[in-house]
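anyone seen this seq b4? input:
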Amino acid sequence: MDFPISGSCDHAFSAVREAFAANFAEQGEVGGAVCVIVAGNVVVDLVGGWSDPQGMRLWRPDTLVNFYSVGKAFIALLALQLVDAGLIGLDDPITSVWPEFGVKGKESTTLRHALCHRAGVPAIREPLTNDALWHWERMAAALAATEAWWEPGTRHAYHTNTYGHLIGEVIRRVSCDMPGTRMHAVAGQLGADVWFGVPEWEQPRFADVIWAAPTVSPDVHSGELTGDALMAPLGYFNPPGYSSMGVVNSTEWRSAQIPSTNGHGTATGVARVYAALLEPGRLLSAGLLEEATRSQSEGFCPVLGEEVTFGLGFKPTTVRRPFGPNPRSFGHFGTGGAVGFADPDAEVAFGYVMNHVIPRWQSRRNRALIDAVYRSL
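predicted toks r here
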């Protein structure tokens, strides 16, 4: 089967185009896009394949797709902008803007704890249905009422899905704007096609996510599990569709704001956000960006099942999951391999999105593209 590829690629970066084509020919890619910006110049902007599993709709430059946890860095960015503006401090308690959160062991939780996955609420305890997903205030209230799974600040665990509601509600309380409104404002300034909550009139541009994931979640409320063994599956499956299972291609999911998980956009949009972060002071002050992209918490994560390093929303590059060879690189992967990152030393901003979800964050596909970028510099 032929996989159409279109777009622009500087001759010096032909290795990226070759790696992109090989992903379709050899690695099962169905549809996707990659964008590379170096020193403010777009050197790669390619799209390829199909936006549906039947191979009927071409992937176009404006095709939108769910990029999963790539959005965690963007919701963190919105909160960090409020810190830069002096409206909240990293070490301020969340209760200073969200009083209802300060119950059941969460009274001391700070914004810093929340941003680096140390807040103690990676899962909601109250059983919820998918109807709750479509109602922001319902999700925020359930999160606020949850008993902390540990004393905030004493350990970390990846807040797989609650991260977006946790950080997003702080943003809403401080700014009186929903996260999607603020994301739209930032994206508009950059010409970046990225969204939290996509209006219905934009949804004909969507690519369908192809994912052989279970449509029925496990029974996480059976009473048979306790502690971390209960916390991890609740984080993924309470509500049942919190990780997008069974709802990912629905109008409700695409329209909702679930910023940890259902950010949508193009590879070019993702790369433009990271390119702007490399411009001193444009999106964040230099000092705060440096703080946000350094290690804030290290150790074993019971949700991800491995040693993990977290910054403040951004993940610093690590040997286990490198963005590139340079130690100041930062970004975030998403389920299935989508990724956005910036490398201040090489002046590289990178975005990659796709619709065929395969396990874990790092894959042969995104690794091949990133390696090809650095061979081309």
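The first strand starts at residue 5 and ends at 9. Residues 5-68+265-297+313-376 form a domain with the Beta-lactamase fold (CATH 3.40.710.10). kinda curious what u guys think
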